[in-house]
Amino acid sequence: MNHCIRGTVVHGNHLGRTLGFPTANIQSGKDQPYTIPNGVYLVNVRLKERKFFGLCNIGKRPTIGGTDLVTEVHILEFCEDIYGKEISIKVIRAIRKEKKFQNLDMLVNQINLDKEKAMRMLSALNKDQTG
Fold first, then answer.
1. Considering only CA atoms, which of 97, 96, 44 is closest in space to residue 73?
2. 31: domain CATH number?
3. What is the pLDDT of residues 25-59, one digit of tens each?
4. Domain coverage including residue 50
5. Terminus-to-terminus CA distance in the chain, angstroms?
6. 122/21 Cα distance (integer angstroms)
């Protein structure tokens, strides 16, 4: 996958923070059409010259009754106020398709599983690169 999304970090409804997974909501320009299917992805995150890994959700957030397409990223091992900053994400691998959960507890459980899967993917990528 070689998808990249750039945009400005904007305020969302702060649900990710409430659930223990704060996210940076990305407002991208209209000139960047979405060719990425809705779902959760392991991504590279770039803030100026700094690089991180993250879990990115692209979709309508059906569990909370969302109707607008949203791009949000939970940056791993990161805790800074980045509202108004430019950010770019590049998809590394798909984790799962978008899914509606019966309640927020089930969603949190799935996000934890997604994070575990992402960490395993990163570990495998590191092993492949070191040999």
1. 44
2. 2.40.30.30
3. 999 765 555 678 999 999 999 999 999 999 999 99
4. 4-130
5. 22
6. 19
Q: pTM (2 decimals)? A: 0.89
CA torsion sign, 41 to 89 to 74 to 51?
positive
pLDDT of residue 118: 95
* Token couple for 17: 């923070």
State the amino acid at position 41 in one-letter form: Y
**52-60, long-range: CB within 8 Å, 24+ apart, which pairs?**
52/76, 52/77, 52/78, 53/92, 53/118, 53/122, 54/78, 54/89, 55/21, 55/95, 55/111, 55/114, 55/115, 55/118, 56/89, 56/91, 57/23, 57/98, 58/34, 58/98, 59/98, 60/98
**Domains identified in the chain, total number:** 1
